[in-house]
Automatic annotation (TrEMBL):
Broad class of the protein's primary localization: membrane
Gene Ontology molecular function: G protein-coupled receptor activity
Keyword terms, alphabetized: Membrane, Transmembrane, Transmembrane helix
Residues of the G-protein coupled receptors family 1 profile domain: 46-341
Species whose genome carries this gene: Amphiprion ocellaris
Protein name stated in the entry: G-protein coupled receptors family 1 profile domain-containing protein
Transmembrane residue ranges: 35-55, 67-89, 109-129, 164-189, 221-245, 266-287
Stored Gene3D superfamilies: Rhodopsin 7-helix transmembrane proteins
Taxon lineage: Eukaryota, Metazoa, Chordata, Craniata, Vertebrata
Localization per record: Membrane
PANTHER family according to UniProt: G-PROTEIN COUPLED RECEPTOR 82-RELATED (PTHR47392)
Pfam family name, one: 7tm_1
Gene designation: GPR82
GO cellular component terms listed in the entry, alphabetical order: membrane
Amino acid sequence: MEDTLHTLSPANASSASFDYPLCPTAATLFFLPTIYILLFFTALPGNLLSLWVFLRCISTMSPTHVYLSHLSISNLLLSITTPFLAAYYARGPVWTLRGVLCQLVLHGITPVLHINIYISLMILTWVALSRFAALIQNTHASRPSAFTTLLPHGFFTRLTKVSFANTVCVTVWAVSVCGIVPGTVYYSVHEAMSHDHEKGGCEKVCYSPAVELGGSVSGTLSAMVISIFFVFYLLVLLSYMMVLRHIRRSRRDAHIITSKSLLSRVLRNIVVIQVVLSVCLLPYHIFKPIFISLAHDQLELAPSPGNDTCSSCHPLSIFVELKNCLFLLAALRASTDPVMYFVLDRTFRCQTLRLLRCNESIAKRRQIFWTTKESTNQKVERLGEENVVTATAELSQSVL
């Protein structure tokens, strides 16, 4: 049978686009839930251990420890959401849009996910910039860096204070929450739910174009947030390039030899942060504007009378799955961040190894204790049996 399609007017295009259901493949139904469950079992203990080391094992907190401890708290919140994300991708095509679990994902999980991404972005950027600022203040080549004259001297002094680091982290949390929550609330309350009351069409399920594509307002806000991401990303890249330049200048200066270990350590830390941002966050933020453009500019096609829209697939189904896979890559940072702490901070590395060795020695002592106790009990039992046998023999001899 020939399918006759006609193009809708812009006023009705968005309404018609939500009549087509998304068609999830094995990538959505099986791969994403599996990885999110694995993420839960790796990110939760890893960040709990990191937070324990920062708060209980390190006696003197440095500004870097403050930044990374706040990052661990953010990652803990993300790791708690991963089982719900696994359930959403596995059962979202079955859940009703008005169901409790779907509403939990829309109103609770979505804000936490985006808040975590941009808290991590700002904290990591600040760690990189503060390391660079401390470097150019404490090591000078033949000619001091221009940053030492552009930035006020009090700024470098505050960098070494824990109170300043706490203020920065509180500001980062406030900016992230106040900037992300209004957009996600508008998306979850108005855009995702706006087509639930339409008459006709297919059954409204949770994993649907209305939820995955959003609307024009959330798309505009996303574009603004993506622009902010690239600003922070370029700041980290700039600090990396300036450290390289500073190292080249320092190698030509004889009195800077004693600081070469510091230079290499700062360079390594900034490179680690740059790699984390490039591998985990950059692909999602490159593809998201493309996805928003496709969702906004595509002229949706409506079926002619008699054509079953519910048996068709939304034309952006494959792009939705690609977006979700790239978002998974961004969420995987919650598992890799504890490894990053291990590389970035020597005190954290030493305290973590000491804690693990302590737990290992305690386990060995317990094993030795229980082994000794069991062998002692066995000896007592054997002695008891021998005494019983001896007493029985003596008793029988006396009777005889």
